[in-house]
Amino acid sequence: MSSPIPKQAPPGADAKRRTLNSLADLGSLFPSEPPEPLPVNDHKNTYNLVALMMYLVGVEYRHFETHDPPLTENFNRHDQKKNARIIRNLCMVRTALEQKYTQIRSAFLYDLKNLASLPEMIPTQAVTGLLADGIDLQSTKPDVNNYILLINREISNRINNVKDMFPEWVRWDYIRPLFLMPNGFKKEGIKAAGDYYNTNRNRYPFQCYINWDRDGCGNIFNSDYKFVQLLYERYEDSFEDKSLVRSVGDQKMDDLYAFIVRNEKTLIVVDCENSDPVKLAAMLSSLNAAQKSAIHKIMLFDSDYTTTAWTTLCQMGIPTDYDTEHIVVGRIYEHKSQVDMTLAANTCREVYLNQVDSVILVSSDSDYWALIQSLPGVHFLVMLEKAKSGLQIRNALESQGHPYCFIDDFCTGATYSIKTKTLLSELQRRLGEAVNINVNTMLDEAFRSTWVQMSDKEKANFYDRHIKTMRLKISPDGQLRIVVGE
């Protein structure tokens, strides 16, 4: 083992020993400077949701290529799914029929054309693509109105097949109506929709038909953030969690990548008592393969007092990408956590035994300042949460040249499922504790107490008809009961 690093006097200290009794005392170690406001972090928009919408409503491939950034990877991923292809091709044909209604109707009547023989007006690949996926729209008596009616029914019947492609944090009951033409099963309905579309075509994204009636919005598929804001406003609602549709800016992402790559072995240590597992997962998911390979290990220091979401985080794939240690630290005294001391000790062990040269410390707790000061040969990057970190610790880090960033800034859209899985696991645990019933025993006891006589076949029929179909019923005030035979 290398010889211990000698202790150094803190910068700015005089010959007299000082005792720091609070976080505010950190300011005495550095030159007096006026406090600075919380840095405004640059953000960049995400495009995953709008890329899916663009694909489904039938936006041409060239717009995915010319988009900044390009969305061709999103297009190709969605194009592998049959249900998505069907909706896309149905929407493409419907848009074409609306845009060229008069010309197509004339070609059907006088030129004996059909859907697949008008490539200059109807995208042939959409018609043939539908046929390849088992949907033949073409009729021996082609009629534009009948085709639109048929397409509207197909979309209405099939749109729920793509529900699972959308993130669970966006309301499906707001998304689904976008694909459904109002009163679209009647000729007067499709005429009204067609007239409105063709007199207001520029308000529709890329001029593709959707059920959209708002003007002055520009391209509603400009970004995930703009789309969900406008979508929710349409229902007099508001979308509040911007971290789901925005990510950390390019410059700060480049700084993070540079920190990882320029060091040989990076350790990530996480104080689970002072960090958010969803935000950590968002940061980790943003790293590419090369950056992931530079991470020596992730060490999660947990306690019985933290959220079970940390366990969920480990179960949902982090150990697949990273060597992960989840350490649960017990307490000697109920009121005193041992997490910070355990984290510091294990961090020093990794530095000395495994030659770790850089540490990403995920915590907003100022107690770790002593750890940072005691390892002057190690590069530290501290990930803070805005609501938990004060000016003193940020100024201290800046004055000593230790970079920091805010873990709140990473897009949490891809890691939202951690919240859902954690809640479902907890509900399942609580339901298991509250409801422990053997239905066979319960049914036998019911027969005995009621003196009801049934043959074995009658009992089996009763079981299949009423017991297997029992369900949960929740009252408006949240009261839950098990319902049989209603």
Biggest sheet descriptor: 6 strands, parallel
Overall outline:
flat
Question: How many H/I helical runs?
Answer: 21
Stretches where pLDDT is under 50 for at least 5 consecutive residues are 1-16, 20-24, 26-41
Helix proportion: 40-55%
Radius of gyration (CA) equals: 30 Å
Indicate the structural class: alpha/beta
Distance between the termini: 72 Å
Number of strands: 10
Mean pLDDT: 85
How much of the residues is beta strand, in percent?
Answer: 5-15%
How is the largest sheet built, in terms of strand order? 5-4-3-6-7-8
Describe the structure.
This protein has helices at residues 48-57, 61-66, 72-78, 82-99, 101-110, 124-132, 144-158, 172-175, 187-199, 224-234, 250-262, 277-285, 289-293, 309-315, 318-321, 339-354, 369-374, 391-399, 417-434, 439-450, 456-467; strands at 43-45, 246-248, 266-271, 295-302, 324-328, 358-362, 379-384, 404-406, 471-474, 480-483. By secondary structure, it is α/β, with parallel strands linked by helices. A 6-stranded parallel β-sheet has the order 5-4-3-6-7-8, with helices on both faces. The protein has a two-stranded antiparallel ribbon with strand order 1-2. A two-stranded antiparallel sheet has the order 9-10. The termini are far apart. The model is unreliable at 1-16, 20-24 and 26-41 (pLDDT under 50).
